[in-house]
UniProtKB/TrEMBL annotation:
<dbReference type="InterPro" id="IPR052155">
    <property type="entry name" value="Biofilm_reg_signaling"/>
</dbReference>
<dbReference type="InterPro" id="IPR000160">
    <property type="entry name" value="GGDEF_dom"/>
</dbReference>
<dbReference type="InterPro" id="IPR029016">
    <property type="entry name" value="GAF-like_dom_sf"/>
</dbReference>
<dbReference type="InterPro" id="IPR003018">
    <property type="entry name" value="GAF"/>
</dbReference>
<dbReference type="Pfam" id="PF08447">
    <property type="entry name" value="PAS_3"/>
</dbReference>
<protein>
    <submittedName>
        <fullName>PAS domain S-box/diguanylate cyclase (GGDEF) domain</fullName>
    </submittedName>
</protein>
<dbReference type="InterPro" id="IPR013655">
    <property type="entry name" value="PAS_fold_3"/>
</dbReference>
<dbReference type="Pfam" id="PF01590">
    <property type="entry name" value="GAF"/>
</dbReference>
<dbReference type="InterPro" id="IPR035965">
    <property type="entry name" value="PAS-like_dom_sf"/>
</dbReference>
<dbReference type="InterPro" id="IPR000014">
    <property type="entry name" value="PAS"/>
</dbReference>
<feature type="domain" description="PAS">
    <location>
        <begin position="5"/>
        <end position="75"/>
    </location>
</feature>
<dbReference type="InterPro" id="IPR043128">
    <property type="entry name" value="Rev_trsase/Diguanyl_cyclase"/>
</dbReference>
<dbReference type="Pfam" id="PF00990">
    <property type="entry name" value="GGDEF"/>
</dbReference>
<dbReference type="InterPro" id="IPR029787">
    <property type="entry name" value="Nucleotide_cyclase"/>
</dbReference>
<feature type="domain" description="GGDEF">
    <location>
        <begin position="318"/>
        <end position="441"/>
    </location>
</feature>
């Protein structure tokens, strides 16, 4: 039985899982196998007669033209990769094997879809790099910076937003990347009806539309035909939603697909675990150096800062002051109103001390109702007395606790370096003695 190879050949070509392209020297598609429908979403009839460059990702066109030129000069290509745009808008990664037929003046190529392989490589590499960032980062904010760098490479044409949810305050805490790396945070209210509020509220992945007026917030799509240029996935750890990871495209026509959702969701799952660990580490470090009730610097850290400030003042011939404070009649209030009221008063006093001192000063709770304040870079007793007067004014303001109004006062002792002592012990002893002298008066 004879076989008509010429008649069978097109059928064999169309049975191949890879797509066969035949392109002329001007870049026009003269033949494409039926597998193109699966590869790019276009039928063979739609592609035939069109320019192959029209389907290539804009960022890959220059490299593709250069590679095609080499093939046409007789240099076969067996491992060239580039990206094409599918009919539905998603990106397809293709591995090519191409040769030039000089006799026919045609470029014959076989295209294999390696998108899944590429995404697996991306995910593995990104996960490894984020794990490295988690180990190297000393703070949660530093980890966010590392995550931003990795995910920006996964989605190079998208803006990234990381938001942590404070359910009690109904606010979002986000890294402020407009300031120095590793430092800034910004707070914004959780706006009901936004896409990010929906993601955090439901704990589900959401594809929505970007809102130019509120970058990163997104607006929930009213219909299937609406844009899909906003993608948000929840950060979930131990069944709790910590926040959301969002990508948003500024490029018109972008539509995030299933593959994008799966990749971002996988990254968010890993990130949530790392974020939770990093936040727990930060909390432990904070508690080691801060008073658990008021959040102020504790005795140990205060002494370290005082010693450091003294060394700096000694080298630079500077001056500093130490204040020792004690709340008057606190025991009486604590005994009559209860420990809860007493704790609230201590917390309020701590906030007032922070409000009436500079960022460069250090406020600490030494224990009980005793506080200390380290004033750096003072210019003499007059400036110290001015600071003391401001503290007394803030402390004397009425406060409401448990429906009752209280008028608190405090005794304050001061000590200046170098007049009242050259060491931390001498300054503390002098300030403490002056405080009790004032209390007796």
């Amino acid at each position: 039985m004879s076989i008509n190879i010429d008649a069978l050949f097109p059928k064999l070509i169309n049975l191949l899982l890879d797509t066969v392209f035949v392109v002329d020297k001007l870049g026009n598609v003269v033949f494409v196998s039926d597998a193109c429908q699966q590869l790019l979403g276009y039928s063979a009839a739609e592609l035939t007669g069109t320019l192959v460059l029209d389907y290539i990702h804009p960022d890959d066109r220059e490299g593709t033209v250069a590679a095609a030129g080499k093939v046409m000069r007789g240099q076969p290509h067996t491992d060239f990769r580039n990206r094409y745009i599918h009919k539905d808008g998603r990106v397809v990664h293709i591995l090519w094997s191409a040769r030039w037929s000089g006799e026919d003046q045609l470029r014959i190529a076989v295209a294999r879809d390696v998108t899944a392989l590429y995404q697996a490589e991306q995910t593995r590499n990104a996960l490894y790099r984020i794990s490295e960032a988690a180990h190297a980062a000393e703070t949660l904010r530093a980890l966010c910076d590392g995550v931003r760098e990795v995910i920006s490479e996964l989605f190079p044409n998208s803006s990234l937003y990381l938001a942590f949810n404070d359910a009690e305050e109904n606010t979002l805490s986000v890294p402020d990347w407009s300031v120095d790396q590793g430092k800034g945070w910004a707070e914004s209210p959780m706006e009901p009806g936004t896409a990010i509020a929906e993601v955090i509220g439901t704990g589900r992945v959401l594809v929505a539309s970007g809102d130019p007026a509120r970058p990163g917030m997104g607006r929930i799509n009213p219909s299937e035909s609406a844009a899909a240029d906003w993608l948000g996935v929840p950060l979930i750890s131990r069944d709790a939603v910590l926040g959301a990871l969002v990508i948003e495209s500024p490029t018109p026509g972008t539509r995030y697909g299933v593959a994008d959702q799966e990749l971002l969701q996988f990254m968010a799952t890993q990130l949530a675990i790392m974020f939770e660990r990093k936040r727990a580490d930060e909390r432990l470090r904070f508690l080691a150096h801060h008073d658990p009730l008021t959040g102020l610097t504790n005795r140990s850290l205060f002494y370290d800062r005082l010693e450091t400030a003294l060394r700096s003042a000694s080298r630079n011939e500077g001056r500093l002051a130490l204040l020792y404070l004690d709340l008057n009649d606190f025991k009486k209030i604590n005994d009559t109103e209860g420990h809860e009221a007493g704790d609230k008063m201590l917390i309020e006093m701590a906030r007032r001390l922070e409000d009436c001192t500079r960022d460069t000063d250090t406020v600490a709770r030494i224990g009980g109702d005793e506080f200390t304040v380290l004033l750096s870079d003072v210019h003499g007793r007059a400036s110290v007395e001015a600071a003391v007067g401001k503290i007394r004014e803030f402390m004397s303001l009425p406060m409401k606790i448990g429906g009752k109004t209280f008028h608190a006062s405090c005794s304050i002792g001061t000590a200046l370096y170098p007049e009242d002592g050259a060491t931390a012990r001498e300054l503390l002893s002098k300030a403490d003695a002056n405080m009790y002298l004032g209390k007796r008066r």
